[in-house]
Amino acid sequence: MNTDAATTPWALATEAVHAGREDLAALGVHAVPLDLSTTYPSYDSRGEAARIDAFAATGARPDGPPVYSRLDNPTTARFEDALARLEGAESAVAFASGMAALSAVLLARASAGLRHVVAVRPLYGCSDHLLNAGLLGTEVTWVDPAGIADAIRPDTGLVIVETPANPTLAEVDIRAVAQSCGSVPLLVDNTFATPVLQRPVEHGARIVLHSATKYLGGHGDVLGGVVACDEEFARLLRQVRFATGGVLHPLAGYLLLRGLSTLPVRMRAASATAAELARRLAADPRVARVHYPKLGGAMVAFEVYGDPHAVIGGVRLITPAVSLGSVDSLIQHPASISHRIVAEGDRRSSGVSDRLLRMSAGLEDVEDLWRDLCEALSAAGAARPVSSPVPAPAPVPVPVPPHGRDAAARQASPAAR
Ligand SMILES: Cc1ncc(COP(=O)(O)O)c(C=O)c1O
Fold it and tell me: Do 3-263 and 265-416 share a fold?
């Protein structure tokens, strides 16, 4: 297969099933080899010393046989190559979890003396906590997107946004934010959109982070994280990963690579379901407000008039659990779980109301999901007071943007958003 993306770009759906597997036919295998070795025998210690020296000096992925799996693993490398291609980035570096990935980025910047971070709320609760508590010795300034340029200082090493954000699905204009960052790298957490809906590098982000635990894996059975970026920053991240040890397990790398192959199909199907649920929820008198991104996507959030805990207790088909991006639908109460660790005042001021529920649409039939939601909403009791004005309808969900080689061009066009 021709993999020269510069001359013959493959569509994203094609990359999803072929990237990271280009050599399989030559190897005479069809499934990706899973290498579980922690160490690699070698009678050539001079050669190993040279590979270790080269890695210490540059952070480039070692050439030749691997030495030790905290340094390099061939199965994980396949997942990294595939994800980099899907994100349109030069490189990708995988980690044990999304939080390990974020930690490595912060450590890489702090090691250059750049300990100040500018961030836009809301972020996933634990990302917020990591920054706000300064657990890695960083200092954060929270701003609205319009305040980014003014908040940047000489020691600012990073600007962080999530779009659509967890859990309110608030969106930021990546291109505009990237411009306000000047020379400071912009990190976009692309967990909710995935490269199927949005490729932040094309809009000026230098670093793209995923909790791979979510849509990339797609089946709720892998914990992982990954950063897509330029090779220069990837080299630093590999050195931090080697020294701090937050590596992805090779079996997780195998499962994540397999997950990527169905990512476009899963995202399209689940997004259509989420859009339809958003439309129905917006018309439901038991629902005060619906949050659904203009970009589309498989997440929908909504605020209820009644008791949100009763909705969680009332679902039968939808799984009442934190996390998202699985083939089955999940629902959770952010103020109790995903954002519990964020101080109440910070939660509320970033739009995370106590009545907010966050649902991750899976691949079930939409009518079955709606029946389950309706029954759970009835359990929650209250509906819109008769005297209250009917809330503004949720934005009309747009079809999921086409994926593939022309997705970026269409995404940039307002008509497609
Ligand atoms: C948007 C986002 N970023 C990062 C993370 C952290 O990822 P992980 O749980 O894989 O460490 C999460 C987890 O929910 C998330 O939702």
Answer: no
Atom of ligand 1 nearest to the CA of 338: 14
In the chain, the percentage of residues whose pLDDT exceeds 90 is 88
Task: Tell me, yes or no, if 124 is annotated catalytic.
Answer: yes
Taking only the tens place, the pLDDT of each residue in 376-416 is 999 888 777 766 655 554 444 444 444 444 443 333 333 33
For 152-157, what is the mean pLDDT? 98
For the stretch 56-74, pLDDT in tens is 999 999 998 999 999 999 9
**Could you confirm whether 70 is annotated as catalytic?**
yes
Mention the CATH class of domain 265-416.
alpha beta
Best residue among 130, 131, 162, 191 to mutate for probing ligand 1's pocket (most ligand atoms within 8 Å of CB) is: 191
- The whole-model pTM stands at 0.92
**Of 242, 226, 283, 10, nearest to 99 (Cα)?**
226
Is 40 a residue of the active site?
Answer: no
Choose the residue to mutate in 95, 97, 99, 161 for probing ligand 1, maximizing ligand atoms within 8 Å of C-beta: 99
Structurally, what CATH architecture does the domain formed by 3-263 represent? 3-Layer(aba) Sandwich (3.40)
Q: Are strands 330-332 and 139-143 parallel, antiparallel or unpaired?
A: unpaired
- Residue 239 alpha carbon to ligand 1 centre in Å: 22
Give the domain ranges of the chain.
3-263, 265-416
What is the arithmetic mean of pLDDT over 252-264? 98
Active site residue 214: yes
Distance 170 CA to ligand 1 centre (A): 16
* Ligand 1 neighbour 211 (Cβ under 6 A): yes
